[in-house]
Amino acid sequence: MAGTGEIGVITGDGKGKTTAALGLALQAVGRGSTVMMLQFLKAPDSSGEHFAVKGLRSRFVIKPIGRKGFIRREGRNPEDQALAERGLDDARAAVSGGEYDLVILDEINVAVYMGLIEPARVVDLAANKPERVGIIFTGRYASPEVLDTADYVIEMKNVKHYFEQGVAAREGIEY
After folding, report:
1. Whole-model pTM?
2. Which member of 30, 80, 164, 168 has the greatest number of CB atoms within 10 A?
């Protein structure tokens, strides 16, 4: 199946942005497309999806590009900056390499918000992609520049969540 080349953004303060992108990826794989998901700010083998796609490697690759632990906007670690830069280089290669129909840049909106990547570089990636390749940008805080590049935008809105009651993230559900 050839890609149709849309640019999507999945953002907002609600849970489910990565999960929605994974659902789109699985639909694409099920129809014969190849998918690469680059996960900014996530460490290898830290989320359930890393284990779930191991059997789909010929069609669906997830590549985490982050270190363990949380990243704060203030007092950024130079390692985070270097990893984000490498991730953007990997994204450019995945988008232009001809191997993938869909490339998901998971949490790239947060990487931009944290100042690890300039919004103009994300816009440039979208503007210079092959026509057939689709791109999905996920994460909270999508910048206006990135939103303007999109053919569609989905906003996840938190109405109620058990986190607010002090329930911790659960393995297999949140990660």
Report:
1. 0.88
2. 80
